[in-house]
Write a structure and sequence with these properties.
A hairpin with a 5-residue loop joins β1 and β2. The protein has a two-stranded antiparallel sheet. It has a domain of 178 residues: MetI-like fold (Orthogonal Bundle). By secondary structure, the chain is mainly α.
Length: 359
């Protein structure tokens, strides 16, 4: 077995303890944070009782709250101990935290993500319609960032100091300074039928009548709903990736081996695209793992701006209402994507630079 093969096998094995460490830490924090689903349900129940007149349910009380009764008088609302225990069992809070984590991990291994507290149905049924949407926008943005930024960065490096370089730098840094969701809101105002032109739809993934459209009508409708969100997704990564590509290539163009290649009489294109470019791609490929997680898991702010029901918006709403099964499922998917992405970065790193040897 070669050293590189054994290295990647070790990296794959290391995913297991790393995954356990990440999920264990987050699981404990979620369980210890006040305002969880049980507390929220108790507050709802007490509020409902108070609105019915402030009367309590008889039984051995646990959790007494002062509430406003009829006529401005204050009374107490009591929740029976049996009801509390039943709610704890429903939210899987009737066991110690380590036991809860072990049960949760065992279920995750068997692809049982539990039931959503908010939607009262299996988590997988909730996310299976949302996850492809985030992958759709994430994959398109991911590909476009690399397809556009690498050639643009190369052109800026080769034409450093030219009017093209200066003009594109202005656009790049303006894009870098604008958050994606803010740019999305501006684009909707300008191009979504707001104060200026009615060119693109005001958000959503597809039109309501998409199923009734012809084949080409569906494609056209999907493209119209894709352009503005993808621009918002790309803007931050687009700017940083372009600058990184330019600076990396310019650094390599100043190396001795490039000057030697020019001294031998090699053509400029051959020196740039064969000798310098390959080494310049090394910093670019090392960030692929991180970008995979960012793009594929969605962005709450962008999805909120365009009213897209993706994973980002779903997870943020789950965070607000403490829907632990959805939050932990998002954690599982995100952790595995990032851990796998780091290994993919190493593989591409070794392919781009044959000098790299993992041991």
């Amino acid at each position: 077995m070669s050293g590189m093969t054994s290295y990647f096998i070790r990296r794959l094995i290391m995913i297991i303890p790393t995954f356990i460490g990440i999920t264990l830490m987050v699981f404990f924090i979620l369980q210890l944070t006040p305002g969880g689903p049980l507390e929220q349900e108790i507050m709802k129940l007490k509020s409902g009782m108070a609105q019915m007149g402030g009367g309590g349910i008889t039984g051995s009380g646990a959790g007494v709250v002062e509430t406003a009764g009829g006529g401005g008088k204050y009374g107490s609302v009591e929740i029976p101990e049996e009801a509390l225990e039943e709610m704890k069992r429903y939210y899987n809070l009737d066991k110690p935290i380590p036991v809860r984590y072990a049960i949760w991990l065992w279920n995750i291994i068997h692809l049982d993500f539990g039931n959503s507290y908010t939607y009262a149905e299996p988590v997988w049924d909730v996310i299976k319609s949302r996850f492809p949407i985030s992958i759709y926008f994430g994959l398109i943005s991911f590909i476009l960032v690399y397809v556009v930024c690498i050639p643009l960065g190369v052109a800026k490096a080769v034409k450093h100091g030219s009017p093209f370089d200066l003009a594109s730098s202005v656009l790049v840094f303006i894009g870098y300074s604008i958050p994606g969701w803010a740019l999305g809101a501006v684009l909707l105002v300008l191009l979504g039928g707001g104060s200026f032109w009615d060119v693109f739809p005001l958000g959503e993934f597809r039109s309501e009548f998409w199923e009734d459209l012809s084949f080409w009508g569906k494609i056209t409708d999907q493209v119209y709903h894709t352009i503005l969100p993808v621009i918002a997704y790309m803007v931050g990564g687009f700017a940083s990736m372009t600058v990184l590509m330019k600076n990396s290539l310019m650094e390599n163009l100043g190396q001795d081996y490039v000057r030697t290649a020019f001294a031998k009489g090699l053509a400029e294109k051959r020196v740039v695209f064969v000798h310098a470019l390959r080494n310049s791609l090394i910093p670019i490929v090392t960030g692929i793992g991180g970008l995979l997680g960012i793009f594929f898991m969605g962005s709450y702010l962008i999805e909120k701006t365009f009213n897209i029901n993706g994973m980002g918006l779903l997870t943020f709403n789950a965070l607000l209402v403490r829907d632990y099964p959805i939050m932990l499922t998002f954690l599982v998917i995100g952790s595995l994507i990032k851990l796998t992405g780091a290994i993919i970065s190493d593989v591409i790193y070794a392919v781009v630079d044959p000098r790299i040897r993992f041991k």
